[in-house]
From TrEMBL, chains A, B:
Highest taxon listed in the record's lineage: Bacteria
All copies of domain HTH gntR-type, residue ranges: 27-95
SUPFAM superfamilies per the UniProt record, alphabetical: PLP-dependent transferases, Winged helix' DNA-binding domain
Family: In the C-terminal section; belongs to the class-I pyridoxal-phosphate-dependent aminotransferase family.
Stored Pfam families: Aminotran_1_2, GntR
Organism in which the protein naturally occurs: Ruegeria profundi
Keywords for this protein: DNA-binding, Pyridoxal phosphate, Transcription, Transcription regulation
One GO MF term: pyridoxal phosphate binding
Protein name (Swiss-Prot/TrEMBL): GntR family transcriptional regulator
InterPro entries: Aminotransferase_I/II_large (IPR004839), HTH_trans_reg/aminotransferase (IPR051446), PyrdxlP-dep_Trfase (IPR015424), PyrdxlP-dep_Trfase_major (IPR015421), Tscrpt_reg_HTH_GntR (IPR000524), WH-like_DNA-bd_sf (IPR036388), WH_DNA-bd_sf (IPR036390)
């Protein structure tokens, strides 16, 4: 790992220059310096043999006289802690272990970073990020940062990035909004926190899809709300089963997570009618619909609504990289003042470092180019995976998906009854595959059964190998 | 603002290339493309006169035949939406307003970033950041990112940065910890959320200092706890007033916020005894003690405790820049597994983008050099401010502070009774000064009265001018 520190000896100067001297104390400067130097040397056995700064340098760094420093050096030479070499300076003595018992800091090896296993879902192929371009945007933004970057931070996030997001939404998601309605967050979790703590209030009954993103339950509990799961059917979220007591609904209309179903227009209209009639808020989580391979996408639900009773959530984790930790929310104009008030009270959490770089990356057109390139790559990978899974067509109902980054495969119809999706996932994991189980996304009884296969982040060769392994896993299980 | 988008016409290509075509629909590709192109042109009046891509380019981008594109271009030329110029291509017609009523998006001017007003506290001088070095660290980390940066993210944060923090704490804060005990957060708010939701549990009674950082009350309420303020005295946190029912105490022992009092050793020992006896946890918020100008700093409370019943909180907001949004917590080894479990359940929020750059910035020694430089600069600025405030010595008890980035000036003794610190702050704000009122940091009755004057971020000339203005404000009020 190239970033691991390797200069322990040069740390001596850092530690020495960090000493503070106090002329107001009864203890003499000489005693203070001797004590500090002793502590530093005793604490670090790896300083043995390290060269100390000249008495002139240390005196200047600590704003004390050179005589004081020289007196301390002389004292510690006589005590055996330091040695002097003719004409070459003062060094930490090589055998000081008998003088004190240094307590070494326990240092485990750096943890190995785990690689992603094939079929991990929700992951873009980050190896295809235009690294040079992205690094250049970062470097340009921070080499001589604009005064605005160093001023009082905008609680909604860096304005030019919000403007770029507004342009992106108009072009890709048929959602017209003012950059003033866009709030940069550190991801969906923060967005939900702002929504419930800042806008809607807590102790709400929140209708969610079943199945859904599993962390949503934790987030709703953590933010002090009650989740009310509504089972989806073949057309997605069952709007007619929405209870009137719900204060909000969290939905993935463009592409239901994880099944991939797109909510048809009549249901969208019914959902917005429900919100208008009951005064509820619909929160649209639009997590990967930019990757559409066939067909005109339906406009976003929030676009259809004109952002009246809807809040739109987006993220760059799947479009660029999860390393960014940059997401955003778009709020109705009438909620803007409340949003701002909450953000000013609690402060921003998204780092400002990536924001100007992401803004120029988007405005330069490189972002859209990257999305189009990824769309072609992911489309090819999906086709490839579908081909590699044909040997399983008697067991699984594998169908092409018009968008997204994973395939969701229903299980119940053709597999033996006693084999659950969890069984398949566990077995596959033993063979190095990271499949998702649809039942783990459900809480209602009669959990749906299915497999989630992410393909976006993996090369075609990896997908072939992984599909072959999956074939033998399933053959052995059935 | 240099990052604001200026290429509206080149957005046409971006929008066009984002169109998806669906061969499985009943609608012909020609109709689909015509509809999409019509929508794009109608929505953006500023596209008038923009040049369209050649039919060959657009056909290739959309994976459809060139004939289809040419047919749509021809149709829309005949409808009046497009015009063709001999040998030079196809353009959006200049008068399409009669053809459709485009709805322009309301776009307010970009908000002006507010500058920081003199005496704003808690702010480093970011104009003195080594921008070139910092930008180079960012560029190097992300130009060809290490595979570890793109793998499954470590829920505790980037390991080499945690190692650098562990080294820094050993050298500057006499706190020895394993890098495995360090957790990177997006700031104090996230740290408290992890502590209460993940480690200690909610519905706790938490002793806090009065006065204290005002946001602490909100954070404790938001995380589902009860704050129990304990009034400080001249020696800081009054440990003997700590009620036994408290489950935790949040303290600033190195430098009480905002008064600047350092907790004496006997009280530190008593506080740790209390924690040991009652099973409570002490949370040490060590926010700016690296900037010490005189005297050996007391070791951190957590260092004294050996991190048994203490959790240590640090941040780079004041040491480097608030733009980073990078803080950290150091947890006792016995709480590590619980911490990890919570982080894995809820996911990281701190952006990974700045972390490797901050790690190499620290390991290269540039960070320590920056801290030493800032320490000299801030010490000079404090001395300068003290001098500029001498004309007020009959009204205010202005004393030098051995550390920190602001002065806290008690008010009650010499000012007329009817003048409160809030009055002074309001009046000063009218004269462009951002003073803090100590009473706004209190909730207990008989609120303390005082002024908080940040000096770190302001040049000496600015401080002189601001001090002069403060002199006339106070003279006019008394």
């Amino acid at each position: 790992m190239s970033n691991v520190k390797t200069f322990s000896k040069s740390n001596l100067n850092r530690d020495l220059f960090a000493i503070s001297m106090d002329t107001s104390l009864k203890t003499s400067l000489q005693t203070q310096l001797r004590g500090a130097l002793h502590d530093i040397i005793s604490a670090s056995p790896d300083l043995v043999g390290a060269r100390l700064p000249s008495s002139r340098t240390l005196a200047s760094e600590l704003s004390i006289s050179r005589t004081t420093v020289q007196a301390v050096y002389d004292q510690m030479i006589s005590e055996g802690y330091l040695v002097t070499r003719q004409g070459s300076g003062t060094y930490v003595a090589s055998d000081i272990t008998h003088l004190s018992q240094p307590q070494p800091i326990f240092r485990p090896a750096a943890p190995r970073t785990e690689p992603w296993l094939p079929f991990q879902a929700g992951l873009p192929d980050q190896s295809l990020l235009p690294g040079r371009q992205w690094a250049r945007h970062l470097e340009r933004a921070w080499r001589a940062p604009a005064p605005e970057l160093l001023g009082r931070p905008d609680p909604q996030g860096w304005y030019p990035l919000r403007e770029a997001i507004s342009d992106h939404l108009a072009a890709w998601r048929h959602l017209k909004c003012d950059p003033g309605q866009v709030v940069i967050t550190s991801g969906a979790r923060e967005a939900f926190e702002v929504i419930f703590h800042g806008l809607l209030g807590t102790e709400k009954t929140v209708a969610i899809e079943d199945p859904c993103w599993p962390k949503l339950h934790t987030i709703l509990t953590d933010t002090g709300n009650r989740a009310l799961p509504v089972r989806i059917d073949k057309e997605g979220f069952a709007v007619d089963r929405l209870p009137n007591e719900a204060h909000a609904a969290i939905v993935t209309p463009s592409r239901h997570y994880p099944t991939g179903v797109s909510l048809p227009l009549p249901r969208r209209i019914a959902l917005l009618d429900w919100a208008r009639q009951t005064g509820a808020t619909v929160i649209e989580d639009d997590y990967d619909s930019e990757f559409r391979y066939r067909g005109q996408p339906l406009p976003s639900l929030s676009g259809l609504d004109g952002l009246n009773n809807t809040i739109y959530l987006g993220s760059f984790s799947k479009l660029v990289s999860p390393a960014l930790r940059i997401g955003y929310m778009v709020v109705p104009k009438r909620l803007l003042q409340k949003t701002l008030g909450y953000l000013e009270r609690t402060g921003p959490r998204a780092s400002l470092i990536p924001q100007p770089a992401l803004g120029t990356f988007m405005n330069s057109g490189e972002f859209a180019m990257h999305l189009r390139r990824m769309r072609r790559v992911y489309a090819r990978r999906q086709t490839h995976l579908l081909g590699a899974l044909t040997p399983l067509s008697d067991l699984l109902d594998v169908k092409a998906d018009s968008s997204g980054m994973h395939l969701c495969i229903g299980l119940r119809e053709r597999l033996p009854d006693q084999v659950s999706d969890l069984d398949v996932c566990k077995l596959a994991h033993k063979h190095g595959l990271q499949l998702g189980a649809v039942s783990k996304h459900c809480v209602l009884p009669n959990k749906m059964q299915g497999l989630v296969l992410g393909y976006a982040a993996f090369e075609e060769k990896t997908l072939s190998d992984a599909a072959n392994r999956l074939v033998s896993v399933l053959r052995s299980a059935c």
